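Quick one:
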Amino acid sequence: MKKIRLLISLLAVLLITSGCLSESEMGEDIMIFEELSKNKPTVEWKQRMDEGDDLFTDENINATNEVLNSYINSLKKLWR
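Output:
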């Protein structure tokens, strides 16, 4: 269980340093999961793709979203 909490804390730190999550939002564990789900890097990738950046494709963004969603859901289950 300590490893799971450490993983979630590390993810929260990553979100804070990337600007996706404020330090005040870290207090609520559920909020962290919601923020992880809402602020995946794929949101920005999709915007960049829509603006003409050919580095990203719908297929790759969708595949990444599936992996990230699965990972976040696994963390939620382990956290409970």
